[in-house]
Design brief:
Blueprint: H1 2-9, E1 14-18, E2 21-24, H2 30-42, H3 51-68, H4 72-75, H5 79-87, H6 91-102, H7 106-124, H8 129-135, H9 141-152, H10 156-162
Antiparallel strand pairs: 1-2
């Protein structure tokens, strides 16, 4: 809604607004793009016009949707096949582009997203570790615990007892 408001204030007519992507009817002039960039930054967004960076944002959006979705069928799919299908690109190309731009692999990014989801579920304190492992399709609680400790330096049970907000916002991962 905020992005739509900024676009309308700039006299632009959005066709479609999704997480990480906006389509507008008009072609942006250089000065109009700069003005839009500044107004979006004022409200915590950024204008991406580099093709590589746009693709990276699309990859991240697909992964976030995949990991944080409540749809169990969606979470069970093969990650590489799903990403390639959603973006209509070869996974090898997407993987090397992501690594080149972000400095980490897509797989590592997926693990980071899963760990953030685990943190969220631990903070809610509604599910056991076993239920969380099952929900996120870990092969075992031990696998989840090992991955959690490797990423955070803490065990899931220790993290749960901290009761501090240790979560990162999704755009900071």
């Amino acid at each position: 809604m905020v992005v739509q408001q900024v676009l309308q204030e700039e006299g632009l007519h959005p066709i479609d607004i999704r997480l990480g992507e906006v389509q507008i009817q008009e072609e942006l002039a250089v000065d109009q793009a700069q003005s839009l960039r500044e107004k979006l930054e004022e409200v915590g967004f950024e204008l991406l016009d580099d093709k590589k960076q746009k693709m990276i944002e699309r990859i991240k959006t697909v992964i976030i949707t995949l990991i944080h979705s409540e749809n169990d069928n969606l979470q069970k799919v093969n990650h590489s096949d799903y990403i390639a299908e959603q973006l209509n690109r070869d996974y090898g190309y997407l993987s090397s582009l992501f690594s080149e731009v972000e400095g980490i692999t897509i797989e590592k990014y997926i693990i980071n997203q899963k760990i953030e989801k685990v943190k969220e579920l631990l903070m809610y304190d509604e599910l056991s570790l076993s239920e969380i492992a099952d929900q996120l399709h870990y092969s075992s609680v031990q696998h989840l615990s090992n991955q959690f400790k490797k990423v955070t330096g803490l065990t899931p049970s220790y993290f749960k007892h901290l009761k501090e907000k240790k979560r990162k916002s999704l755009d900071q991962i």
